[in-house]
Write a structure and sequence with these properties.
Structural class: mainly alpha
Radius of gyration: 17 Å
Number of domains: 1
Shape: elongated
Strand content: under 5%
Largest sheet: none
Length: about 140
């Protein structure tokens, strides 16, 4: 999937915007009973999706299999959206089914991410190293 790294980052930044806005609204209202929704938006949405996007940027070989990359994005971004909604419904309406389903979708995305990284670790190609554009320290 072309630019999959950017799609992860766009999804992450969107979750950040929603999470920060939600946090500000909670602060203004002095009502923090939905703090788990805010936390999951920021941790699953912003942090995890951003790290996945940066990983795809560092190791472009991860994006070569377009079906796997699209599945990875769909599971991860989908769960990052559904999980906070499910937590909201669980808190407000005492029905945790959506949160449970989203947690399982998130788990599937994490397992797929780990499996793809492990496959890359054992690949016998030149793509095992991160791209030079991400190098922070000069090569010796």
């Amino acid at each position: 999937m072309p630019k999959i790294d950017l799609w992860f980052l766009v999804a992450a930044a969107t979750c950040l915007l929603v999470g920060v806005s939600f946090g500000i609204a909670m602060g203004i209202a002095h009502d923090f009973h939905l703090a788990p929704v805010h936390a999951h938006l920021n941790l699953l949405g912003w942090t995890s999706l951003a790290l996945m996007g940066l990983t795809y940027r560092a190791w472009p070989a991860l994006a070569r299999n377009r079906v796997a990359a699209l599945a990875q994005f769909s599971l991860s971004a989908g769960a990052a959206i559904l999980f906070p909604i499910g937590i909201y419904i669980a808190i407000e309406h005492q029905t945790p089914e959506m949160a449970i389903l989203a947690a399982l979708i998130w788990l599937a995305g994490v397992v797929l991410f780990l499996a793809r990284l492990l496959l890359l670790c054992f690949a016998r190609e030149e793509t095992e190293e991160p791209t030079a554009a991400l190098a922070i320290l000069p090569a010796e």
